[in-house]
User: Fold these one by one.
Assistant:
Number 1:
Amino acid sequence: MSAEPHFPFIFTPQLRKRLSRRAVDMLLKAFGEFPELKGQIITVGYTSAHLGSALVPLREEAVARLTIRVKIHKLTYNTIGHELTHLLQGLSKIHFKAGKASEAMPFGEKQCDIWTLARSPLFLDDAPTYIRLPRAMREDWPRYAKSVRRLCIAALKKRRTHRLYMQWLEAKIKDLAKRPVEPKPGEQMGLPF
Ligand SMILES: [Zn+2]
């Protein structure tokens, strides 16, 4: 008997044709950030229309057929994390309804982005799609990524007492974009001569 952890993915033929070693490694690394999904088998398919998509499980029967789809070209951890978080949105609701969890993760795209960024710095490699970001921030995402993640974590704490936590988050993000930014590593401070 092998003590190896099981391989958590089934790849559709359409995806397998396009799959690289690097993409498989990325999927595995992202999956490792989701202890809630441990022991699940996830079907990973291919999409050309979006960065990714997920079939959010709504009933117990769907738990056995967890499915996400990704675009392999320019695959990011952020996309994988976002799609896996969609699976959790459904699973947590199913567990909640069955009385196995005290609260459920809310549905929604923006919610999915917030929970994804809060989960791990791994998912900061690309800007989130649905959280409203000022253009300057979207264009210079690496410079703001860590601060936005901190705000997402704060927003999830805020949510316990504050119904409008997403508005709160986006207002804080807007403030952040107005603040003078720190220089990039290795960049000079731009002192006048
Ligand atoms: Zn989504």
Number 2:
Amino acid sequence: MTRTDRLRETRPTRTVRTAPKRTALISGAGVAGPALAFWLNRHGFTVTVVEKAGTFRGGGHPVDVRGTALDVVRRMGILPRLRDMHIDLRRLTFLDGDGGEVASVAPHTVTGGVAGRDLEVRRGDLTAALYTTVRDDVEFLFDDSVDTLHQTGHGVDVTFRGGGSRTFDMVFGADGLHSRTRELLFGPEGRFHRYLGYCFAGFTMRNTFGLSHELLMWNTPGRAAALYAVEDEDAVHALLTFTHPEPPSDAFRDPEARRNLVASVFADAGWKVPAMLAALNDADDLFFDTVGQIRMPRWSSGRVALVGDAAYAPSFLTGQGSSLALVGAYMLAGSLADRDHTAGFAAYEHTTREFVTLNQDQVGKGDATLFPTTARALEQRNDMLRDIEATPSAAKGRPAHSALTLPDFTPRP
Ligand SMILES: Cc1cc2nc3c(=O)[nH]c(=O)nc-3n(C[C@H](O)[C@H](O)[C@H](O)COP(=O)(O)OP(=O)(O)OC[C@H]3O[C@@H](n4cnc5c(N)ncnc54)[C@H](O)[C@@H]3O)c2cc1C
């Protein structure tokens, strides 16, 4: 062995190697998916997003972005764009069973939001803004979904419904409340779904009511009908919500059973409800679901982690679904910036779970206001609304919405 050989054996070579980029697959291009894609890309990952829908759907129901989540969209550079899309909801008017006005209040006084700071945008506008920000840096596969996941010591082997298979360093489930990734990883949804005792039917209908920038909410005990006019548009968002002791399994299997159930619950209702039921019959965008939360003891297993509604849907009663999805995406990607998947996923849970739980626990505060279930609860709610109307105060926002201060994550060199 020559001296040079010996030196080669004992000294490290000085060749500088850059670590290969880690690869990530994200299932779902709603709110959490594109936000996670943005931040993983920033932290040096090569990202693919697979979405079962063929394309983006614009419009959709309005969602809120509040508190800590505002800092996420600011750091992504899309806050000004979202401000332009802000729905300026001016009045929230509560009605009794006969359609008589109970109270008309500024929306933030009951939602816990902060007027002038919080955002309310159409869900489709939010997802489009997120998508536009990342589409040039990330691979999107539309009209496809994950069929199987198989974890090995060095990656996750994925097969796709559309055919083909690939291996990724990590996989993320951002596929919403009824997440298939969660099912593949942790088992049936029933283990984690906490039914909150309500069902709802959402759809759009013609705005024959002359409504503009306002929400009308009709209540009788255990039933609510809402008409939400986002702008001076031809269409309004209609929402029929009702208590139901158990999740109605028939209604999920059969669209006809769904319409029949809603029609029977609201059969004797007054106000605009008969017109809403007629519109529901013809609606081609009917969205029927139970109101529930996802509560999981762990959000990851091996090289696969969940984010957004897939991991911790808070239900629309909290109005925090989009905000949790945005904050969760930021925290998950940041936790992986200088860590491997094991340490990164542990850090994600450690730093984010308290914020998530605090916001999921807000549910008790929303349902009593919007959907009182007994005559007594409805009466108390109406008294409370009349007080608000008489002495409106500047809302400071709920502390839970801002309970996490975003850390600055250092990207891996
Ligand atoms: C009627 C209604 C009103 C709401 N109101 C509010 C509100 O006022 N404020 C608020 O903050 N939130 C509200 N929400 C909730 C909010 O929309 C969600 O919490 C939020 O969008 C969560 O984002 P996400 O990305 O986790 O899930 P989603 O937005 O549900 O996105 C999941 C994505 O995954 C895709 N996907 C599903 N399965 C698969 C699969 N197998 N493979 C590939 N892709 C898949 C879906 O097509 C979708 O694009 C409301 C929800 C509803 C239904």
Number 3:
Amino acid sequence: MPNKLEIGTQEEGEDCDYVVCIRFTGLLALPGNLIGTCCKCGYMIQYRPHAPKTPAKICLECAVPEMDDSFGEHDLKVMITPKTAAEVAAYLQKKKAN
Ligand SMILES: [Zn+2]
């Protein structure tokens, strides 16, 4: 099964559909993170200052079902940078541990 969650460069990230961000729950995951809102649910999200600016920002919780629906049907392209991927992995691990 092809996986379209791609990890690519900053430049490639600019023409993606979404940038996946983690939710902001009152604590920055990393110092220097910027705060925005999810394009779907409006929840506050945090992202790295180097995140691509062009694509809509979406929280992880919205992104997962969106990706499930869209893979195969549409040519949805979701991009996370290697840095974000590491952060998301750490976030999920922490979430699982709790
Ligand atoms: Zn959302």
